[in-house]
Structure formats: C-alpha cells, structure tokens
C-alpha cells in the first residue's frame, strides 16, 4: 500500500508541452508526452493529496481520477493557471515542457503560401514560470513550501550532465531538481534512463527511471521530508 504521507496537502503538477501559435492552425511545439506529470499527479492523489493538474498538450492519457484538471495551450496560459493554483499550494512540481520562446507575431489568418521566400519567424522569450514561482514565494505572494523543477540535460558524460544540472538548480532557485540525461554522449554514453534528484541543500541521489510511476514515487519520497509539519 502507498503511504498516505500527502494527506491534506495541496499539490500542483504541470504536465505536457506548451504550443505557441503562429496562426490559427499552426504552432511551435515539443515532443513532451505528459506521462511523467500525469504519473506524478496520480501518485500524489494515491498518497492523499488534493491535486491540481495543469496540462498542456499531451499524448492520449487516462484521466487522473480525483485530480482537478486545468488544460492550457501556451506558456502564458500555463503561467496564469499555475500561478493561480500555486497561491494556496504546499508543493508545485513543474514537470511540463514549457516553450522557452514563442513566435513574436501571431497571424490572425492562416499564413498563405506565396511564390516569394517566406518571412523568417521572429521569436520572443517566454516567462520562466519556475523561476517566477521562486520569486513569488520570496515576495510572500504564494505559499508553496516545496518547488520542484525538471531538467533534461545533454553532456558527454554523467559528470557534464550533473554540472549543468547543478548550475540550473542554482539559477532557478527551486528546492529540488529532477534531472534526466538525454541525447547521445560521445566518450561516455549516457544511459537514457538515468536520472538524479538534486536538492538545494546539496544532497544528490541517482534514481532509476525504469517506469514513470516508479520515478514519481521517488520524487514524492524526496519532497515529503521538505514539507513542514
Ligand atoms: O531552463 P529549462 O527549460 O531547462 O528548465 C526546465 C524547468 O523549468 C522545467 O521544470 C520547466 O517546467 C520549467 N520552465 C518554466 N518556464 C519556462 C521554461 C521552463 O517553468 N519558460
């Protein structure tokens, strides 16, 4: 049986990939499936939490019974939804793949094919939702005792990946960073299914990413001790 160690806790989990529109039918998106975020939400419900799942685009996934689902499109939509849900939350987990950039212009009508060369797509930086949450907490605007980020890092070795991840943990200021090594290494092939949990207090542990629900349990195991009684 799963521990009921999130009983009465309010938890926000973001999942999936944002879509940034170019025109009414086209967007810039990413390959996030949403599986890890959904697994985190499902596990949190099973462990007793009151869960808000803020979901951008995902593959077809079974709904998380017992969670409140808020669906969003763009990074800006996600920012508004997460921010609102975070106000009274104990924990926020940003598992979503949020687009770093959006097209600067969003055409009102479908962009037409013409004989001349197409215009380049201009990009504008999106807000960093995770970093903003950390700032909002520092400013006393949200509770969120525990803020968790994700990082998909590439590197030639596990050492490289960890180095990048430690820097990201500092930069973002979150309490826990879930690190996935992605892509192909050269000298040392990095296992696709390897990961680490890095805490702001400096503790680091490797986790096997065998299944996303197993990973979700490991993440909640690391979060629970960070929540004050
Ligand atoms: O900087 P990077 O995109 O690698 O950071 C990943 C982490 O930051 C994830 O937790 C992701 O949900 C979050 N993020 C965000 N807002 C962005 C970009 C990433 O909250 N605009």
Automatic annotation (TrEMBL):
The segment annotated Phosphopantothenate--cysteine ligase runs over 11-229
Please report which protein family the annotation says this sequence is part of: In the N-terminal section; belongs to the HFCD (homo-oligomeric flavin containing Cys decarboxylase) superfamily.
- Source domain of life is Bacteria
Cofactor: how bound: Binds 1 FMN per subunit.
Question: What exactly does this protein do?
Answer: Catalyzes two sequential steps in the biosynthesis of coenzyme A. In the first step cysteine is conjugated to 4'-phosphopantothenate to form 4-phosphopantothenoylcysteine. In the second step the latter compound is decarboxylated to form 4'-phosphopantotheine. Catalyzes two steps in the biosynthesis of coenzyme A. In the first step cysteine is conjugated to 4'-phosphopantothenate to form 4-phosphopantothenoylcysteine, in the latter compound is decarboxylated to form 4'-phosphopantotheine.
Stated name of the protein: Coenzyme A biosynthesis bifunctional protein CoaBC
| Keywords carried by this UniProt record | Decarboxylase, Flavoprotein, FMN, Ligase, Lyase, Magnesium, Metal-binding, Multifunctional enzyme
Q: Which cofactor does it need?
A: FMN; Mg(2+)
What chemistry does it catalyse, as a reaction equation? (R)-4'-phosphopantothenate + L-cysteine + CTP = N-[(R)-4-phosphopantothenoyl]-L-cysteine + CMP + diphosphate + H(+); N-[(R)-4-phosphopantothenoyl]-L-cysteine + H(+) = (R)-4'-phosphopantetheine + CO2
Instruction: Kindly indicate whether the keyword Metal-binding belongs to this entry.
Output: yes
Gene source species: Actinophytocola gossypii
Q: List the EC numbers from the record.
A: 4.1.1.36, 6.3.2.5
Enumerate the GO terms in the molecular function aspect. phosphopantothenate--cysteine ligase activity; phosphopantothenoylcysteine decarboxylase activity
Q: Does the keyword Lyase apply?
A: yes
User: Where does the DNA/pantothenate metabolism flavoprotein C-terminal domain start and stop, copy by copy?
Assistant: 6-224
Pathway(s) of this molecule: Cofactor biosynthesis; coenzyme A biosynthesis; CoA from (R)-pantothenate: step 2/5; Cofactor biosynthesis; coenzyme A biosynthesis; CoA from (R)-pantothenate: step 3/5
* Underlying gene: coaBC
List ligand-binding residues for CTP: 100, 110, 127-130, 150, 168, 172
């Amino acid at each position: 049986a799963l521990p009921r160690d999130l009983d009465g806790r309010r938890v926000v989990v973001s999942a999936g990939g944002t879509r940034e529109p170019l025109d009414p039918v086209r967007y810039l998106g990413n390959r996030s499936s949403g599986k890890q975020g959904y697994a985190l939400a499902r596990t949190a419900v099973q462990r007793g939490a009151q869960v808000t799942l803020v979901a951008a685009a995902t593959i077809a996934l079974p709904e998380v019974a017992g969670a409140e689902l808020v669906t969003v499109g763009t990074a800006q939509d996600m920012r508004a939804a997460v921010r609102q849900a975070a106000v009274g939350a104990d924990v926020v987990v940003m598992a979503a793949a949020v687009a770093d950039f959006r097209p600067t212009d969003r055409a009102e009508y479908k962009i037409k094919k013409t004989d001349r060369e197409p215009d380049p797509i201009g990009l504008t930086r999106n807000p960093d939702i995770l970093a903003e949450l950390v700032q909002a907490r520092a400013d006393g605007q949200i509770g969120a005792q525990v803020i968790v980020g994700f990082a998909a890092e590439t590197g030639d070795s596990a050492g490289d990946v960890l180095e990048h991840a430690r820097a990201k943990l500092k930069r973002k200021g979150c309490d826990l960073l879930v690190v996935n090594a992605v892509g192909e290494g050269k000298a040392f092939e990095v296992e696709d299914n390897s990961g680490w949990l890095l805490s702001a207090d400096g503790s680091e542990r490797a986790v096997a990413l065998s299944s996303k629900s197993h990973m979700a349990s490991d993440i909640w195991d690391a979060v629970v001790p960070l929540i004050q009684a």
